[in-house]
Amino acid sequence: MAASASTPHTTDFPAEGRCSYYVEKKKRFCRMVVAAGKRFCGEHAGAAEEENARKRILCPLDPKHTVYEDQLAKHLKKCNSREKPKPDFFIQDINAGLKDETEIPEQLVPISSLSEEQLENLIKKLRKASEGLNSTLKDQIMSHPALHDALNDPKNGDSATKHLKQQASILGNIEKLKLLGPRRCFVEFGAGKGKLSHWVDIALKDAEKVHFILVEKVTTRFKVDGKHRKKNSVFERLQIDIQHLCLNKIPLLSKEKLPVVGIGKHLCGVATGSLLLKKRRK
What is the rounded distance in angstroms from the CA atom of residue 215 to the CA atom of residue 244? Predict the structure, then answer.
């Protein structure tokens, strides 16, 4: 990451008690809290002259963060990415599809490596396999009044506006399908910070007996679901890969027996950009 720790690139200064490391990519200072008497957070401590003698390395469990080499053993015992006991709703590969070894190719190859003839044969096979399917997709770009004020906030940048429009469209589609209502459980797949569930909760106002289950594979910072304290809304976060998630064994779902609405704004992998809308009754 290209960044400068010593000379700010803007006229701003780091907030009091916050890291003095300037993140060039984000055009701002790091917002992590620093220890008393320090200028940099643990992640960027290597930028401080007094810390140069100690080497920081990538965490072997999650290369998205670093750790002091001489504290690696201690860090591995408490790292958020360490192996944890599996909950009851973890069932290995339950959503991975059938694994028929006779149908799995010995070696997967990228489409870009296929010859023109091989690519044409693949297209023919796909067209034949999809015959009779209603595969015409129609854009359903909508909006929802719950996001009206947020969408018209003059402080929004291009990125914030884009995400708000997507969330408003998803809410509009959920409402059109008559899935936005009380006495149900919304399961957000690939929840990230939980903003989609946040707006669903806002849209439902004081609807009774509404539960939210936020499913995310990795540890997420700046989560918004922790801010919700409404009496009629319950938020629960599950850190698990969807590949191994068994909804029937989630205690809240098995206990409450509520209809389930599956939602998602962005799922990494083959489901990237998908919108899941599904209702299940027991």
Answer: 11
Q: pLDDT tens per residue, the chain (282 residues)? A: 444 444 444 446 788 889 888 888 888 888 889 888 888 888 887 665 554 567 888 999 988 888 888 899 999 999 988 888 899 999 988 887 666 555 555 567 788 888 999 999 999 998 888 887 877 778 889 999 999 999 999 999 999 999 999 999 999 999 999 999 999 999 999 999 999 999 999 999 889 999 999 999 888 888 888 777 666 788 999 999 888 999 999 998 988 889 999 999 887 654 433 333 333 333
Angle, CA of 44, 47 and 52, to the nearest 5° = 115
Note whether 55 and 49 are within 8 A (CB).
no
Here the tokens at position 275 are 């919108």
Most distant CA atoms of the chain, gap in Å: 69
> What's the pTM value of the predicted model, to 2 decimals?
0.64
Compute the C-alpha angle 80/83/85, nearest 5°.
110
Q: How far is CA 3 from CA 32, 62, 67, in A?
A: 15, 21, 18
